[in-house]
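Quick one: C-alpha cells for this chain, please?
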Amino acid sequence: MNEKKAVGRKPTKSKSAKKTESSAIKKNPQGDVIFALDIGTRTVVGVLARKTPQGCKILDMETVVHEKRSMADGQIEDIKSVSGDIKKVKRALEARNRIQLRDVCVAAAGRALRTVRASWEYSLPESKMITVEILQTAELDAVRRTCDSFSQSNDAAAFYCVGHNVISLSLDGFKVNKPEGHRGEKLVTEIIAAFLPAYVVESLCAAVYGANLEVANITLEPIAAMNAVIPQELRLINIALCDIGAGTSDVAVSRDGSVVAYGMATTAGDEITETIMKELLVDFNTAEMLKTSDDKEVAFKDILLRENKVTRERIDSIIAPAARELARVIAEEIINANAVPPQAIFLVGGGSKLKNLAALVAEELKVEASHVITGRRELLRGIIAPDEMPLDAEHSTPLGIAVSAGEGVSYDFTTITVNGKKLHALDTNRLTVFELMGFAKLKPEDMIAGAGKPLSFTLSGEKITLRGEHPKPSEIIVNDEPASMNTVVTKGDVVTIAPAVNGADAAAHLSDYFDLNTIRAFTVVLFGNKQRAGKYILINGREVTADRRIWEGDEIALVQTESISELLSYLGIEEKVLLNGMPPAPEDMLKSGDIIAYENPPVVETAQTVQTVEAVEKTLITVPEAPVEHNGPMITVNGIETEFPARGDGKPPIFLDVAAAFSDDPTELLAHAGTITVNGKIARLDEEIHDGDVIIIE
C-alpha cells in the first residue's frame, strides 16, 4: 500500500475487530440461486448457478478432495466424513458469496441401477387447448404410475425413483413432438424411469443432512451429465454419453429426440489407480498423483519408504491392461443400453482424461476413432461461466446437476418425517398420507381394528357374557393437526400415523367373583368313604382352590359345606347322623378327618340275609355330585390344607404340577415369586410331592 492511498483513510482496525465485523456480515438468503453438489468417489464439487434466458450462469465453484477413501464405487461408506467435506464446500461458497445456503440439488451414481420403460394414457380436459402445464401434469402422472407399477413387483420402500425422461408423446394415436396448442382427447406419454436402492439414496441424503442442508432435488448422474453436454436439439442423433468417475461409469443414450436408456458399471478410474498401487507398492494418493502427472519422470516414495522415480512411459505400460479393461466395460455397457454401436460417443468425467481411452473405446465398439470424443470445456453447452473459471471434463456432472435443476419438468425428492423417521418420496404435488404408508411399512389393514372377543360362562347356574373392549381407532396427525389418509402432504411436513389397535378380549378370573382367602377344602369320612368338605369351587366338575382364568364355556359353582348341616343338605342326606360318635348340632363346623356315621344304621333285608350297614353304604348309597376321588396326597399350600389330585399314570405328582394348578402360566408365577419351598427347602420343578408336604409359593 503506498502512502498516498493511505492518506485520509480511517485507522486500521485490529484483527479482533475485523473478526467481529466479519462474523457480523449478514448473509443473503439463497433465493433463486441453485446450489448443485456432485458427491463423487474422490471429490465433492459444489456449484452456485442461476437460470437465465441465455442459459445456466455459473456464479462460483468449489472442489474438496476426500482426505480418505470414504466412498467406493459411487456409494458413501463413511457418512460422517463425507458430511465434513460437504460442509467445507458449503462454507467456502457461503463466505465468498455472502449467501446462506440451505437447499441443494444432488445426483446419485447408478450402482444397482434399475430402469423401467412404460407408456401411460392421460385423458385431456374437454375443449381445452394443451398447455405446458397440462403436459407437465401428464408427465408427472406417468412418473407416478410407473413408480406404482414398479412397486407391485418390488418393495416400495426398498427403491427410489431418481429420475426420468420422456421418450415420446402421442396425441390421439399420432406421435407429436410439440403438443402445445393442439387439442385432443388422449395423450400418451412414454417415459423411461430410473430407480436406485433406498440405501444408496438414503446414505446420500444422510450426508447432506449432516451438513445442515436439505435435498431440494435429486437426479441420476448420467441424466445430469447428458443435460450439460447433449442439449435437446442434439438428441435426435443416436448418441451415447459415458460419465466416467472414480467409482462408476454411468451411461445414457439418446435417440429420436429423447434419452431412451441408462446403464452403469462399477469399473472406473479407481481401478486404474489400484493397478498402479499394486505394481509400484504405493498408497492410493501417491498412485493418483502418478496417474494424473504429465511429467516425463516422477519421483515418489513407496510404502517401504524407498525413494523412487518412474517415467511416464512406464506408468502408461502399467495401466495399459486396466485401461483396455475399462474400455471394454464401457463399450459393453453402451451396447447393453443401445443394442448397436451409436453414431457418436461422448466420454466425460474425470476418468475420461485417461490417455488413449477414447481410442480404446472406439476400437472395442468397432467405430471410427473420430466418433469418440473426450469431454472438454467446449462441449459444456448452455453453460455461461467466466473465462478464468477452470471447466473441464470432470465438471460435466456438477454443472449438469445445476442445469437439470433449472430446466424441464422437475420434481422434488421430498423429505417428510413419518413417525419420527425421515422418509423420501417422489413429490408430484399430490402425495397423500395414504401413499406414505408404504414408505412407513404400514398396511391399509393396520388402520382398521375390531372389538375384542366376548367371554361367556355359567356362574352358579346363571349365564354371564362379558363384552370385549372397544378398539382404539387409528390416528393421523399432520403438523400437529388431525388429518386423514387423503390429506395431501408436502415437503417438510411432520406426520404421525398411529395404527388402530384391536380391543382386548374379554377376560375374567375366579378372584373377580370369589374371595379366595375364604376358600378352604378338606376331607372327612362319610359313612366309611372319603368326602370333600369345606368351601371350594368347581369348574366343569373339577375342584379348584386357587385363582384361575375363566375360559369360554366354563361352568362354575361354589360349594359351601363347612358345617355338618351344609354338607348333609348338599348331599341330600336326611337321616340323623353322628359326628365323631356324638350327635351334632346343625351349626357344628367340620374339620379335616371328621367321621360321620348314621345314628341308626339302616338294615336292608333280603330273602337270604341281612346286610350290614357297611354293605348298604357300599351298594346303595351314592354321594350326589361328589368329585371323582383320586386318592392324591394331602398337602398344605400357603397354609391351606388340601388333597392334591393323583396323576392319571399312577405316579406321584411333582412340584411343577402344583404350580400349574395355581396359575395358567406356572413359569410366569414362579419367575415372580420370592419364596418357593417344599418343607422349608428350595423346591425343584421335578421334585415329587407326598402326603404331609408343606409348600410355599409367595
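The first strand starts at residue 28 and ends at 29.
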